[in-house]
Design a protein that fits this description.
CATH topology of the largest domain: CREB-binding Protein, Chain A
Strand content: 5-15%
Bound molecules: zinc ion
Structural class: alpha/beta
Length: 350
């Protein structure tokens, strides 16, 4: 076939001498180019150009096959101008990524990775993930895997996926494994968020408990502190109010623990948790049962001790996390400690 030399737009205003190299691409097309430009942007092309020729007079030729000729033209355009149109990226983004990888043109490679990332769809993701592997583009590969994991149902229905299942079981396995791990990670972080929420709630309940036992709030207060009836709700009133209602119930419930009252048992657990988070070991704490629990802890090694200690640590760290986001004055207020312990009878129900 007689080569068909085309003239191309180098997308630059520079004036060039006569072309001294020809790129041969598919369908016998010849693209005239300049050795100096090619050599300056691609070490691989530079190598080709520097190869000794059979005859001094013979033309220097570089063969680029396996991609459409228009993709090669867009590639050459980039070598001259460092620019690639969105239209070329739409049509030849994958070919350009392959060419930039093979001919070591990092600038174009970055441009293609971004361009392909922006254009990822459930339709093309299977092709792009394979290319990203071949072209050593880990960021693009990861984006593909995430899209696969999040939209697997849609991807599974594509021709690309069906082809992959038939021809590349290893990649299929790899993708399925990633999806599995991705699901596990998602579940884990969801559970972690829920747990953190619970610890934060417990930590708030612990603070309210100390505050109710030391200074009193709207419904309940310590027996030896004069609590004004018209007290305004405190800063964490929704937690505080719930806790006060629970304390009132605990102080007056007929069934109590023995009768298996759920609300009493919950209050009992909050008192116990407090004794694990409480740092006042000199019986100055005003929260009921605090000292008793602490003494019991020292005397008998209970089986569930470790579990409570772990819970207390988590609640304490949730408190640290939330206090970090408070202004300093507020933080000092929150740190205020309480005095004297008298058991549940020390409450005055208002
Ligand atoms: Zn309160
Ligand atoms: Zn009860
Ligand atoms: Zn205490």
């Amino acid at each position: 076939m007689t080569p068909n030399t085309i003239s191309i737009d180098y997308q630059t205003n520079r004036v060039f001498p006569e072309p001294d190299v020809f790129i041969h691409c598919s369908q016998g097309t010849r693209i005239p180019v300049h050795a100096s430009i090619l050599a300056s942007v691609s070490p691989v092309l530079e190598n080709f150009i520097d190869r000794p020729r059979k005859h001094r007079s013979s033309e220097r030729i570089i063969q680029i096959h396996g991609v459409p000729c228009d993709a090669v033209i867009a590639f050459v355009g980039f070598l001259y101008s460092s620019r690639c149109t969105e239209e070329a990226m739409d049509k030849y983004g994958m070919h350009l990524l392959a060419l930039s990888h093979v001919y070591l043109v990092p600038l174009l490679k970055q441009r293609c990775i971004k361009g392909l990332t922006d254009r990822l769809t459930t339709e093309n993701v299977v092709d792009v993930v394979q290319l990203a592997r071949l072209c050593d583009a880990p960021d693009l590969h990861l984006r593909c895997m995430r899209l696969l994991a999040n939209n697997f149902k849609a991807v599974e229905a594509t021709e690309g996926w069906k082809f992959l299942v038939k021809h590349d079981p290893w990649l299929e396995l790899d993708i399925l494994r990633f999806i599995d791990e991705h699901e596990t990670r998602k579940k884990k972080s969801r559970r972690h968020r829920m747990e953190q929420g619970l610890y934060t709630e417990l930590s708030e309940a612990m603070e309210c408990l100390e505050h109710i036992c030391a200074e009193g709030c709207t419904l309940v207060g310590p027996y030896d502190v004069e609590v004004q009836r018209e007290r305004r709700p405190c800063g964490r009133f929704s937690t505080c109010q719930g806790l006060q209602v629970l304390i009132r119930h605990f102080a007056t419930c007929e069934k109590r623990m023995a009768g298996g009252c759920v609300r009493c048992r919950r209050m009992w657990q909050l008192f116990r948790l407090h004794s694990y988070v409480c740092h006042q070991t000199d019986s100055s704490c005003k929260v009921p049962f605090c000292r008793q629990f602490q003494l019991k802890m020292q005397q008998e090694k209970r089986k569930d001790d470790a579990k409570w200690k772990l819970l207390a640590r988590k609640v304490a760290s949730a408190k640290v996390m939330s206090s970090l986001s408070l202004p300093k004055r507020k933080r000092d207020e929150e740190m205020r400690v309480t005095m004297n312990n008298h058991g549940i009878r020390s409450f005055k129900l208002l």
